[in-house]
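Appendix B: a complete holo record

For completeness, this appendix reproduces one full record from the ligand-bound portion of the collection. The bound molecule is S-adenosylmethionine. The inputs are the chain sequence and the ligand SMILES; the output is the full three-dimensional arrangement of the complex, encoded as structure tokens. No fields have been trimmed.
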Amino acid sequence: MRLFSLGGRLALCASMVRPGAALADVGTDHAYLPVWLAKRGAVRHAVASDVRPGPLERAKRNIERWRVGDVVETRLSDGLDGIGPGEADDIVIAGMGGLMMAEIVRRTPWLKNGEKRLILQPMTRAVDLRRSLAEEGFAILREDAAQEEGRYYTAMLCAYDPARSSGNALYPYVGRLTAETPEGRACLRRVTGRLRAREAGLLHDGEQEKALELSRVRQQIESMIAWQEQKG
Ligand SMILES: C[S@@+](CC[C@H](N)C(=O)[O-])C[C@H]1O[C@@H](n2cnc3c(N)ncnc32)[C@H](O)[C@@H]1O
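The structure of the chain with S-adenosylmethionine bound, as generated:
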């Protein structure tokens, strides 16, 4: 049976998992990511976890179907509550809201170990997630964007490193995204669009100072995009 392809979003997450890692995929649902990595011999072990039994049943069916039960096990767990520090080097949390991810990271003290890697792919609230990561001492080592079915997604590779965890005013909005790829530029344009809308709201409420702060951030992002487009 030919191995299925991961979509652009999960393929980006997979590219951030270290070869031979012990993986935890939190909120695994169908378990496509751990199954795909196990099938390619790219992980030595994986815990595919979910907070709900229904998705975990889907995960079990796919693990059986693709015969990777010797590498991938399932676990009913809220966030990382049911997974121990010795079980995972690389932890993927993909396809959830950024606030939920921030909460899962915040309440898992064993992630504060520079050897661990977190791969986070938020569907919403990436700005709040980056702020929370910085507050908790996590640095973003790499961040990239991917396209899937006409939508754009970002994924960030993070590690505990308090000395490198915070940045300038731009950081929560951009993280380590660059304008070098069309996908990166599309994500950055989405950020400038949102900032523009918030600026208008703040001006409407008479909050000139805050609106000005956001407009400075927006203009810096617009310059990043324009500079890259000029470069060609
Ligand atoms: C949209 S699916 C994402 C599936 C897969 N990770 C992906 O990116 O394609 C979100 C999954 O996260 C699970 N989930 C939500 N909150 C969770 C939590 N606190 N702990 C573990 N799993 C959670 C849901 O049950 C659901 O199966």
